[in-house]
Design brief:
- The protein is mainly alpha-helical and about 60 residues long.
- It has a domain of about 25 residues.
- Helix 2 crosses helix 3.
- It starts with 13 loop residues before the first helix and ends in an 8-residue tail after the last helix.
Length: about 60
């Protein structure tokens, strides 16, 4: 029996998450197109979007 490959949810650096979200908002692309372009799961992008919208202090990267 094959085991599922599980990726740690914190595998993406917050600066990468911010870059992807910035690109998404500035381009006006759909979540599906943005996630495909960056090679990430659409669900991850939705989660990041909700996280940053609900916690705007997370957007300030030092």
């Amino acid at each position: 029996m094959k085991q599922k490959k599980v990726i740690n949810r914190s595998a993406y650096d917050p600066s990468f998450q911010f870059e992807v979200l910035s690109s998404h908002y500035s381009s006006g692309e759909s979540l599906s197109v943005t996630s495909f372009r960056y090679g990430i799961n659409r669900g991850s992008l939705c989660r990041w979007k909700n996280l940053f919208e609900n916690h705007p202090e997370s957007l300030s990267l030092s």
